[in-house]
Amino acid sequence: MWLSREARLVSAITLLVVPTIMYGGWTLLGILTHGTVSPSPDVHLDETQWALWRAGHAHAGVWTVLSLLLQIFLDSARLSASAKWLARICAPLAVVFLSA
């Protein structure tokens, strides 16, 4: 499969952001096993915060995969170069904002 230079660039940057999502998942694991975000016992989350934390990072992982697939599809799309760049950048950026 052949990818354009732009698709390779944005995909590489997206893959470099994956550790931030993984850190969020690691933090989530700490919440579920120890009941706190950090080793400090004075930081606690209520049930709603736990649910939002879990949903945010689970969705971020799915959106990351979809933003990588979008890079492939944009190479075949009949859009202007500026519209392609906008889509290439906004999809992975939405993942970062979702998990933040």
Topology:
Elements: H1 5-34, H2 47-76, H3 81-99
Describe the structure.
- The mean pLDDT is 80.
- This protein has one domain (5-37, 44-99).
- The chain is built from three helices and no strands.
- It has helices at 5-34, 47-76, 81-99.
- It is elongated.
Fraction in beta strands = under 5%
| β-strand number | 0
Biggest sheet details = none
Anisotropy-based shape: elongated
First-to-last CA distance = 33 Å
Q: What's the helical proportion of residues?
A: over 70%
Mean pLDDT: 80
Give the ordered list of helices and strands: HHH
- Total domains: 1
Q: What's the Cα radius of gyration?
A: 17 Å
User: Given the structure, what is the number of helices?
Assistant: 3
Ranges where pLDDT stays below 50 over 5 or more residues in a row are none
Secondary structural class: mainly alpha
Multimerization status: single chain
Tell me briefly what this model is.
This protein has 100 residues and is mostly helical.
